[in-house]
Amino acid sequence: MNFNEKLIELRNSKHLSQEELGHEIGVSRQTISKWESGQSYPDFQRLVLLSDYYGLSLDELVRNLDVQDVRDKNMSAEQLNSIYNDVGFAKKCIKWWIIIAGIAVGIVLLLVLHFVINAIFVW
């Protein structure tokens, strides 16, 4: 039995909805849904809460868990975070380049204006 199937079976054995279980352990219904569909896994704190809630040891709760699947999902999350961080850094760099370019254009315009005004008054 997969971990997500075990979660579904445990929740159904207590006749709970996903929302009710989420309320019991302090997460949203959507989080329970993701765990049960195998899209993500609970963090350690939530595993402890689940094991306490169902009266199981952590070993009983996670036994036969496909560890490679957990690693793959964790790696995907880390990669997404890395991408988001890179995009955020790129946005900051672009913002500063725009500011610097704007200042440079402003200085050039002021110099041109200065020379034009001087040329007009010299005539």
Structure description:
The chain is mostly helical and 123 residues long. The protein has helices spanning 3-13, 18-25, 29-37, 44-54, 58-62, 67-122. The mean pLDDT is 87. The longest helix has 56 residues, at 67-122. It is built from six helices and no strands. The chain folds into two domains: 3-62, lambda repressor-like DNA-binding domains (434 Repressor (Amino-terminal Domain)), CATH 1.10.260.40; 66-122. Helix 2 (18-25) packs across helix 3.
Q: Which structural traits does this protein have?
A:
mainly alpha; DNA-binding; 434 Repressor (Amino-terminal Domain); 81% helix; DNA binding; rod-shaped; 2 domains
**Helical content (DSSP H or I, runs of 4+):** over 70%
Number of domains: 2
Number of strands: 0
Task: Return the CATH topology of the largest domain.
Answer: 434 Repressor (Amino-terminal Domain)
Radius of gyration: 29 Å
Name the CATH architecture of the largest domain. Answer: Orthogonal Bundle
The CATH superfamily of the largest domain turns out to be lambda repressor-like DNA-binding domains
What is the molecular shape? rod-shaped
Largest sheet: none
Coarse structural class: mainly alpha
**Amino- and carboxy-terminal Cα gap:** 93 Å
Quickly count the helices: 6
Domain HTH cro/C1-type: 7-61
GO molecular function: DNA binding
Keywords: DNA-binding, Membrane, Transmembrane, Transmembrane helix
Protein name: Transcriptional regulator with XRE-family HTH domain
